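Budget justification, computational time. The allocation requested in the original proposal was used primarily to generate structure tokens for proteins on the priority list. As evidence of use, we reproduce two of the resulting records. The first is shown immediately below.
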Amino acid sequence: MLDILVQEENERESGETGPCMEYLLHHKILETLYTLGKADCPPGMKQQVLAFFTKLLGRIRQPLLPHINVHRPVQKLIRLCGEVLATPTENEEIQFLCIVCAKLKQDPYLVNFFLESKLKAMALQGSASVITEDMIKDQEPVTTDTGQPGQPEETPGAAGAEHMEREDELPQQADELSFSLDELNVTASSESSAACTNQDYNLVNSLLNLTKSPDGRIAVKACEGLMLLVSLPEPAAAKCLTQSTCLCELLTDRLATLYKALPQSLDPLDIETVEAINWGLDSYSHKEDASAFPGKRALISFLSWFDYCDQLIKEAQKTTAVAMAKAVRERFFIDVMEPQLMQTSEIGILTSTALLHRIVRQVTSDVLLQELVYFILGEHREPETLTDINRHPLRHRLIEHCDHISDEISIMTLRMFEHLLQKPNEHILYNLVLRNLEERNYMEYKPPCQEDKDVVENGQIAGAVDLEEDPLFTDLSPDNTLSAQEWLSASPPVSPEHPKNDGKTEVHKIVNSFLCLVPDEAKSSYHVEGTGYDTYLRDAHRQFRDYCVICLRWEWPGSPRSLEKCNLEASFFEGHFLKVLFERMGRILDQPYDVNLQVTSVLSKLSLFPHPHIHEYLLDPYVNLASGCKSLFSVIVRVVGDLMVRIQRIPDFTPKLLLVRKRLLGLEPEGPIIDHMTLLEGVIVLEEFCKELAAIAFVKYHTSATP
């Protein structure tokens, strides 16, 4: 029959229906075949009917689904799919469902034919009940099948063929995926079951059932079918998908089950370095893995399913994406992950933070990232005060963990924040830092009177501190110090009305101020080749360019807010995040080397952001700080003051410092333990950090000065 129909279509002009096809449509042949398939009479008939429907939809070029005598039996046949797992017809069922999905992807409007009956039924509620022929035959409501949201990357035509052929390309996945998609088969919770009874979005429900198949290939193809459906742009289908199916529950329940299946303790390095996860290729063989560790299979399964959720939300139509992401936040992040992150067991904190770090690195969907950010940081955008830093308990706890008694927990939490800051989401930096700098109340500002104006015109800055008289700078030669006029020219503009001086002149002064911070007797880099300040310039340029691309769409101002418009009377609090970072920076001479590297890494990432207030607060050594305020530069100045006192107490300080640097660079073999090792390593990190800040300042000024 199929051969006759295909031959007939080939012999006729495009779009013309032949007599055989007319007969098939008018005499309800597909209805008859459906009835035989449902009864599986004779035995094996269901398999044949599914194969016939699949080939008919796949090989006939003219649109068939709009015909009521096609889409009605197709709807009914969809109901039969996924009813029982591991049936002999499972392969035919998934191929049939996938060809329907591909057809809908090709022509999204077709989804309305599948939704039409449901919408009619809803419209007719409360009025005369209409009993259709289908209801009489099947004793169940007319179904609505299909569609969803978004715009996947593949072309519609290729999508169908690709998803139909994937089965042959996944020869090894059946056994391997069974761990995450069968053994971890989620029996929906009682509330999920209650919410999902008597639903009639059968194309989605059948695919959801088949994602639990013991055969990994079937499960993967079911996931691919769902990926096509969520990307359909029809609003009615999107609404039906999120309100009338168990899709959100399936995603979140399986995430929770896979997360809970992980060992209580996992090595953070294993979590970080496990191979890049692709949800469709979760084929892991413990026997073949030379780098296996306990829990690796469970970890790969969890990360694989998270990647699927991420990709699904990324491809989905907007309203569907938002609904799915909110479900992940409420039912997985808050209900499952938050208690683990808030616990007091150090092993538990370390493992859960490492998993959160991995999730932050892995997420690519903007909508899911938004929900992840709100989960970690909360939604607050008003300036912080010391009394309300605990408003969002998880944010408060994670920031506190940056200064945890366990160095491992501190480093892991700092790394999580470092990667979070690099994500393309404006709320992250605003919530952590920018909201506290908006009013620029870290500056001491006197309204300019005529006397002050005269002083400025004469090359002096009103209220400026003369660093030449600062005891910390007595070791600097006159060539390295700046005149008052140069200090003025080095400061960024205070408002758009005051044009900036030449950028290259400014950068020279700023760079020198950072490079001269560490006294000569505490410097060791000039004894070792290839460790000069210029080595940081290339990295700073590349990173700053990347940050500018990320921040471009946030429409940040090009210059600081005018002081006349700022509330300088408000008390300044740098915020919980910077407070903890500054405290750790202040202890750089007494902390382990690895902790110092991570603290300075986060601060340098913050300094790279192209926002004028961040630049002014973190990278302008000449900003006139209000009483009681501290900045990054003032913190480093205090550290240098402490260092200069402590240097005097250590005999042979410079040779020891040079030896430690060479050991860290691998230029000297490990030898006897050197006294004051933590201090010496801290001095080296401090020197390198000042060079890095100088390079960042140079790159930022150079970029802003270039037209």
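The second record produced under the same allocation is shown here.
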Amino acid sequence: MDSRVSELFGGCCRPGGGPAVGGTLKARGAGGSSGCGGPKGKKKNGRNRGGKANNPPYLPPEAEDGNIEYKLKLVNPSQYRFEHLVTQMKWRLQEGRGEAVYQIGVEDNGLLVGLAEEEMRASLKTLHRMAEKVGADITVLREREVDYDSDMPRKITEVLVRKVPDNQQFLDLRVAVLGNVDSGKSTLLGVLTQGELDNGRGRARLNLFRHLHEIQSGRTSSISFEILGFNSKGEVVNYSDSRTAEEICESSSKMITFIDLAGHHKYLHTTIFGLTSYCPDCALLLVSANTGIAGTTREHLGLALALKVPFFIVVSKVDLCAKTTVERTVRQLERVLKQPGCHKVPMLVTSEDDAVTAAQQFAQSPNVTPIFTLSSVSGESLDLLKVFLNILPPLTNSKEQEELMQQLTEFQVDEIYTVPEVGTVVGGTLSSGICREGDQLVVGPTDDGCFLELRVCSIQRNRSACRVLRAGQAATLALGDFDRALLRKGMVMVSPEMNPTICSVFEAEIVLLFHATTFRRGFQVTVHVGNVRQTAVVEKIHAKDKLRTGEKAVVRFRFLKHPEYLKVGAKLLFREGVTKGIGHVTDVQAITAGEAQANMGF
């Protein structure tokens, strides 16, 4: 991580400072390359029949892996060829974890050749047969005309193929929602998930609040989860038709789980916990058009960068501002994103074509940052955000998923409940392995460093029953009559074969992002590592006596209250007031339960 990210945390990042890293990325028209960034075709001597310079448009060359497939045409394939095409579609769907994009009329090297109307119709018919063979659905995303070297109109067609994997109920994507207080985070989620526009006074957000004081103040102080579904045709499935959460899950082939986080600086620890423990695939940073980058916006942006969470930006409340005010806010965002600490390429989304391109670019390049401008009251450009979310593919590939599933079971405990007639219930994310109903696991560490045996009675995902949980998925597990008093946030439930180790002392390689004076031995900070959140004291700074903002070092920490389960390589974030730093765990000093009990008096 570039130490210049500290500018975002320290609040000393000037909107106009730093060299620009590329211009604002926008989708090109039919004659251009909407896949920006690929190699350009060589210019040929001579001219086309229309008398124009013959400069063929290109996409990036087709990659062997990934979920994007180029096909020049699919007209009347032989049976052998058809079976080969079906196998190829299965591979692309596996790579995209249930989603694939077909570009019809494009050569493997990325040349946009295009097809005549009759050939395109026949190719789409073949593609439909292929999808039926594998049990998938297809949706035409967009069509573009290509006028290169031909008098006849020729088109390329982009098609989304979606199939829910056999071992899953639906495709799942987790999106953390960040932004300053009063920027409209909960209101936007209410509009998306309830299907009704806001009245301008916050009516849409009322169903999202969990506590009375949140309703009274209009400010989120806790972490809440909301779901938005899309069926196989890309149509929105939400609560608008009086559906229950179970019905939404049953009707959807893709599910977006929004993690609504707090915007007020007072609840920053809750926001950090949501980002570190719930493992979001990406983040939505909401910025109010009338206030611009204000309050905790810059700090939330810095958190996303520090934790390497891909993010896109939504500029809200455009109905309250003049067009010039909205443009000024967008320019301000573009300047910050291009600064050396960010190295992002902003992409302003103004049309449905832009939204499709943005979703693909966002998944392929970590530097591309789409920017939407919309209103939750008038509904302006709200459909563009829905198109983007519908097309956005999973950001982890299938190989990583398979590797995680082959490891032993490890479930992070993030929430603890008591449900009448069910008993103790824990919520969290399965970090690795597979968890099934009836599995025997151990949970810990307790305050005295022990791990306790328990049994998983039942599993629910998005409020609907689920028999099997796979790595990367979030769920709630019912533990029956297990004593809730023995549980706390930050514990892990693991397979007994793992023989988990615990530690009170660990070392981490850190970058001090911001500190008003000098960072020394004896300084106490709140450490966030995954779902672990506890106060720790700095015992030693290797090779140095003190640290200043932007400096790196290996630091030894000691937990003050109880031992924790940590893994080498885990991302770490610490804070205390305005002091903030990031890094990763480099070493843990494993201890036994007896040693943990002896250390409790530290």
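A brief technical remark on that second record: The two ends are 34 Å apart (CA to CA).
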